[in-house]
Specification:
Its cofactor is Zn(2+). Keywords: Hydrolase, Metal-binding, Metalloprotease, Protease, Signal, Zinc. Its EC number is 3.4.24.70. It holds the Pfam family Peptidase_M3. The chain is an alpha+beta fold. It contains 29 helices and seven strands. The longest helix has 32 residues. Bound molecules: zinc ion (ZN). Zinc ion binds next to helix 19 and helix 20.
């Protein structure tokens, strides 16, 4: 649907504007909103980032939602019998103005937030959820979708249409669209109650993080790095404890403390505080909250005829069902446990040699692992940084995209494409052979106030055939520290990997070749894999020799340093894999067991015993503070997904390693783009992977990457 508000205003200009009612006037003003306007300028239109204002956000989103709902109503009330053309196509096209408004909304919430914007966000959030339930609960609309779907089950549509209708139908069905009126009411009640419990769960965890702070004096900071001591002093001062040092009850404070502190008793105290969050049998205890959540989730999926929550959730994931996910985890589990035994033995040897009369406990693991690391790997991260300069790394990204995707990146002249901050740079992406424009790549590299932490990728516009395949507008966002003029930005190896990772998401957007917007969607245990895979190019010879150069001397990073980095990647994998896997296993067990029989405190204990959990390690997220799973539904029965994506990553990387041209093999690269990137969700992920690899993924490569024994070698 096109916006034509300006023309209307032109007509009214001849009449007296005062003849408009107040409501009409508001309507006119809203439709005039810059943030709803079609994009103009180069590249078939780009967002007007230089014209956006916080005050415009609320009216734009509200008007955009109203317009989208009107379009949906029109589709739902069409008197013609439902078809793909008169129902699904217009649905896929609808809501364009709102999409544009949300692009600006996204920039405000992630890149340039402010107290004013957060107020707007607070006001809009209930309205946005009301708007989306108006669509998902639109009975007339669902009946049309269902009819198109049922028709397509009898007589298939062409492949992309078939997949589109199946994905859309499944989405509605999974949110209860097929329920009777009575059951729908119960369903809505359950959701309301769940969202209250999710908030309570996370508030309890937050309270426990704030309520348990350990204060140290000058005699208790032995072993801690200077930077840690400094920030601990600030944290103490902020809490009215001048002259002391605060170890707060968060991962970013706990983890380095347990790694470096020489004070064993304090390590135990910090460890106990952290892993008891939500489990202190007081007003913030989360065990009862977990019981209620599990019962309600189970009741809700039972209304829809599913045995358990995991079965409902996983049906449209690559794993498809809980059994497949469990099988993978159980295959890796014994190797992880065996590695833990070796790691503990290494650590015990060091403790014995130091003449400490102790056996390794959970609060000793990180501390002694760090000693083993220094002994075995001796990697100086400051030295590595000297070879990782941001400008060079950016060129390394472009080189990789050129080799694999046949893309060329050239900087867009400043001022031709509007940006929301002077630090943002824009590149034009073209096909090297045809010269055709693929899209734009925006990079917002530096940390600033109002920008969220971490690194992420997003699109301002995706390409679909239905919408005329306009240039893709992709973006990457990081939080590097902005240097003084003329100074280089030097980044850690981890951050360089993340830079490649996020660029992988951007390439996934840029290379999309699908007909309908629904097919752009992601599959949770699959979409991280493509970008994880791209990280592997950082340590390929071609990238190392051309781009990993000393920022002053231009000397290529020494081979032995690269070897150390690679070797260090298998370090402490027993600990890392075990603490992760046990959380993922528990997540699945909670959601495949009848909740009537679950008392979380007992259940966790029993299950850990059954799994043979080593006493030196604890779950990365113990149940009473497992926010991924209990403070919302994003990762409930989805925590295994990280491992699932890792299996695909390792297996696909070996496809390159084994090819004649290695990581730059043209044939494998071609298959990579064609089957793993371009189709996005237009093809079943398992089928897409099979087309790329010629077989299903197996865990051998993952086991090799983690330095674990490979199952097929022992057969
Ligand atoms: Zn990612």
């Amino acid at each position: 649907m096109k916006l034509k508000p300006l023309k209307l205003i032109g007509i009214f200009a001849f009449a007296s504007i005062t003849t408009l009612t107040q409501a009409q006037q508001n309507d006119q003003n809203q439709m005039d909103n810059t943030l709803l306007q079609e994009w103009d300028g180069p590249y078939e239109g780009v967002p007007d980032f230089d014209k956006m204002e916080v005050d415009l956000i609320k009216p734009a989103i509200e008007k955009g939602m109203q317009m989208h709902l009107a379009e949906i109503d029109k589709i739902a009330s069409n008197p013609e019998p439902p078809t793909f053309e008169n129902t699904i196509i217009p649905m896929e096209k609808a809501g364009e103005a709102l999409d544009r408004a949300f692009t600006y909304y996204g920039i405000y919430s992630s890149n340039v937030s402010s107290p004013e914007f957060r107020e707007v966000q607070k006001e809009l959030s209930p309205k946005i959820s009301e708007y989306s339930s108006k669509i998902s609960q639109n009975e007339a609309l669902f009946q049309r979708i269902k009819s198109v779907y049922e028709e397509a089950q009898k007589d298939s549509l062409e492949a992309e249409q078939q997949r589109t209708i199946e994905l859309i139908y499944k989405d509605f069905e999974m949110s209860g669209a097929n329920l009777s009126k009575e059951d729908k009411e119960r369903y809505a009640e359950i959701n309301k109650e769940l969202s209250r419990l999710y908030t309570q769960f996370s508030n309890n965890v937050l309270a426990e993080e704030e309520n348990y702070v350990v204060y140290l004096d000058d005699n208790q900071i032995s072993g801690l790095p200077e930077s840690y001591v400094k920030s601990a002093a600030t944290a103490a001062a902020e809490r009215g404890h001048e002259g002391e040092y605060a170890v707060t009850n968060t991962r970013s404070s706990m983890d380095p403390f347990l790694t470096y502190s020489d004070e064993r008793e304090l390590r135990e105290k910090v460890w106990r505080n952290y892993y008891s969050r939500g489990d202190n049998q007081d007003e913030f205890d989360n065990n009862e909250v977990i019981s209620q959540i599990l019962k309600l989730r189970d009741e809700r999926v039972e209304l829809m005829g599913y045995d358990n929550y995991a079965q409902w959730r996983l049906q449209n994931r690559m794993a498809k069902n809980p059994q497949n996910a469990m099988e993978l985890m159980e295959a890796v589990w014994p190797a992880a446990l065996a590695r833990v035994e070796e790691e503990v033995a290494d650590m015990q040897a060091i403790a014995d040699k130091e003449g400490k009369n102790i056996t390794i406990k959970p609060w000793d693991y990180r501390y002694y692992a760090e000693k083993v690391r220094q002994q075995k790997y001796d990697l100086d991260s400051e030295e590595v940084k000297q070879y990782l300069e941001l400008g060079n790394l950016t060129q390394a990204l472009f080189f990789t995209a050129g080799e694999l995707f046949n893309y060329n990146f050239s900087p867009v002249e400043k001022g031709t494409v509007p940006v929301f901050h002077e630090d943002v740079k824009v590149w034009e992406v073209t096909d090297k052979t045809t010269g055709n424009i693929v899209g734009l790549w925006y990079l917002d590299p530096y940390a600033r106030q109002g920008k969220r932490s971490g690194a992420w990728a997003t699109t301002y516009r995706s390409a679909t055939e239905l919408k005329g395949d306009k240039p893709v507008l992709s973006s990457n966002n990081s939080n590097f520290i902005k240097p003084a003029p003329g100074e280089p930005v030097l980044v850690s190896w981890d951050d360089a990997e993340t830079f490649f990772h996020e660029f992988g998401h951007a390439l996934h957007f840029l290379s999309a070749d699908v007909k309908y917007p629904t097919l752009q969607g992601g599959v949770r245990d699959y979409t991280e894999f493509q970008s994880q895979l791209l990280e592997r190019w950082l340590s390929t010879d071609k990238v190392i020799n051309q781009f990993l150069k000393h920022h002053e001397t231009g000397e290529v990073i020494p081979q032995d340093l690269v070897e150390k980095i690679k070797k260090a990647s298998t370090f402490n994998q027993g600990f890392a894999t075990t603490e992760f896997l046990v959380s993922a296993l528990m997540d699945m067990k909670y959601h495949t067991t009848d909740p009537e029989n679950i008392d979380p405190r007992e259940f966790e204990k029993e299950q850990l015993k059954e799994l043979g959990m080593p006493e030196q390690i604890v779950m990365r997220h113990r149940s009473p503070h497992f926010g991924h799973v209990f403070s919302g539904e994003g990762y409930a029965t989805g925590y295994y997904g990280y491992l699932w994506a890792d299996v695909l990553t390792s297996d696909a990387a070996e496809a390159f390693a084994e090819a004649p041209g290695g990581f730059y093999d043209k044939e494998v690269a071609h298959k990579l783009v064609r089957f793993l990137f371009a189709p996005r969700n237009a093809m079943d992920p398992a089928e897409a992977y099979r087309k790329f690899r010629g077989r299903d993924a197996n865990i051998d490569a993952l086991m090799r990457d983690r330095g674990f024994p490979v199952p097929s070698d022992s057969k």
